[in-house]
Amino acid sequence: MTTYYTKSHEWIRVDGDQATVGITAHASEELGELVFVEAKDEGTEVAAGDAAAVVESVKAASDIYAPVAGTLAGFNDALSDDPTLVGKDPEGEGWIFRMTVANPDDLNGLLTAEQYKSL
Amino acid sequence: MDRAFPMSDSLQRTPLYDLNLELGAKMVPFAGFEMPIQFPAGLMTEHLHTREKAGLFDVSHMGQIRIAAKSGDVKDAAAALETLVPADFVGLAAGRQRYGLLTNEKGGILDDLMVANMGKDLLVVVNAGCKVQDADRIEKALSDRCVVTRQFDRALMALQGPAAEAALAPLCPAVKDMRFMDVIETELAGVPVTVSRSGYTGEDGFEIGCAGADAEKVARAILAQPDVLPIGLGARDSLRLEAGLCLYGNDIDVTTTPVEASLGWAIQKARREGGVREGGYPGADVVLKQTRDGVARKRVGLVADGRAPVRAGAKLFADAEGQKEIGVVTSGAFGPSVKAPVAMGYVTPEYAAVDTPVFAELRGKYVPLHVRAMPFVAPGFKR
């Protein structure tokens, strides 16, 4: 399993063509405590950079973008009951959605952990 | 320079700017000022802390204006201001404060403001974004009878929450004897201050005005008291929204009248139809007619049935299919104390009754809300 990052502060953990997506600890800290998280329906096809989910703090809503093209494959239902899970464990239990990656080669265009850290 | 990269050369700073940075504030541009949006505790904690204990807000960006009658009689200043604001200031006793609306010829709201009778003159507090135009308008209309003094270099801070009195009393014992909307001139930590028992959160609390040069001393003395945290503009917004209080520029502006904005309570009996000083302010014909005949839209409170926050700008519908548009949301956020998404907005009168179901457009869906009475939280005022 490999984890890639985006400039818009998503992470994507990939195993074959199956991937899990969330927001980075840095993004979570910037947003503050979340009060609502929602992803587009399972089966929705997305292009890289399409809004695939939304996270909301008290103050504002922020889109979460699909890091690469693919098909949405499920939402982290635990966030419906407790959206603060994202803040507690952004790169673990606080994952937001799963997706099937259309073209695994696209992942090469994303950032490595080290590249993301040096942003 | 304090910062390697100033936010913008054109933004103004309050007298508490350095202290805000020292306290770890995240600064944002607001109404031409560089203001703290939140402190390290974060918006959610700051909001709840203010409801449970006490929070100190830097609101020095707001404008303080003094109006003194050339006759020397404060009643003459009050009567003069009544020509611009549909409120009863002549009947406002010395040491008391009242909310009012500055209207234009069409009855539109130019600003909302707090007016205090200081005994010798009036102290008016206006919104940051409107303060220059407000002062210009007041000066132009009143200069034959009054001296209008802009005190825009003065600081203003608000201490809000159930622990506010306990925190302030050791520094300024006189506050214990104040009730809601009282105003006094006194000393706090050795500094001359104006103190009103009022605010913008729905909680008990005080607003403290002082010379800019003294602001940091006052703020540090208050922050040293137990249970006091610095609070940013982010929590100020969610607190005022839960309290059902309007934000000028969002919920009220020149296109809304006092009647449409459900602010008829701010027009006291003496200024209403049949009152001893009926009308006599800009747009009075419009406001009196609307009071008599009704309006095409009313400001209402809204609480979402679900968890998704509905934000300003969301269209409101009568039905879940988005067929019949009935209004728009003007402020919306998750209410940390209500523990649900709360909002206010304008709807046509037939949908304005409490408990009416309505629907808001949200990311292509229509989410259910209900019209609810405001405030959304029980007020904590000391009457």
From TrEMBL, chain A:
The keyword Glycoprotein does not apply. Residues 18-100 form the Lipoyl-binding domain. Coiled coil: none annotated. GO terms for cellular component: cytosol; glycine cleavage complex. Binds 1 lipoyl cofactor covalently. The modification N6-lipoyllysine is found at K59. Keywords: Lipoyl. GO terms for biological process: glycine decarboxylation via glycine cleavage system; protein lipoylation. It comes from the Bacteria. It holds the Pfam family GCV_H. InterPro entries: 2-oxoA_DH_lipoyl-BS (IPR003016), Biotin_lipoyl (IPR000089), GCV_H (IPR002930), GCV_H/Fam206 (IPR033753), GCV_H_sub (IPR017453), Single_hybrid_motif (IPR011053). Its cofactor is (R)-lipoate. Belongs to the GcvH family. PANTHER family: GLYCINE CLEAVAGE SYSTEM H PROTEIN, GLYCINE CLEAVAGE SYSTEM H PROTEIN-RELATED. The glycine cleavage system catalyzes the degradation of glycine. The H protein shuttles the methylamine group of glycine from the P protein to the T protein. The glycine cleavage system is composed of four proteins: P, T, L and H. This is Glycine cleavage system H protein. The gene is gcvH.
TrEMBL record, chain B:
It catalyses: N(6)-[(R)-S(8)-aminomethyldihydrolipoyl]-L-lysyl-[protein] + (6S)-5,6,7,8-tetrahydrofolate = N(6)-[(R)-dihydrolipoyl]-L-lysyl-[protein] + (6R)-5,10-methylene-5,6,7,8-tetrahydrofolate + NH4(+). GO terms for biological process: glycine catabolic process; methylation. Substrate binds at E207. Keywords: Aminotransferase, Methyltransferase, Transferase. The keyword Protein biosynthesis does not apply. Its EC number is 2.1.2.10. It is an enzyme of class 2 (transferase). InterPro entries: GcvT (IPR006223), GcvT/YgfZ/DmdA (IPR028896), GcvT/YgfZ_C (IPR029043), GcvT_C (IPR013977), GCVT_N (IPR006222), TrmE/GcvT-like (IPR027266). Residues 297-377 form the Aminomethyltransferase C-terminal domain. Residues 16-269 form the GCVT N-terminal domain. The keyword ATP-binding does not apply. GO terms for molecular function: aminomethyltransferase activity; methyltransferase activity; transaminase activity. Pfam families: GCV_T, GCV_T_C. GO terms for cellular component: glycine cleavage complex. Belongs to the GcvT family. This is aminomethyltransferase. The lineage of its organism: Bacteria, Pseudomonadati, Pseudomonadota, Alphaproteobacteria, Acetobacterales.
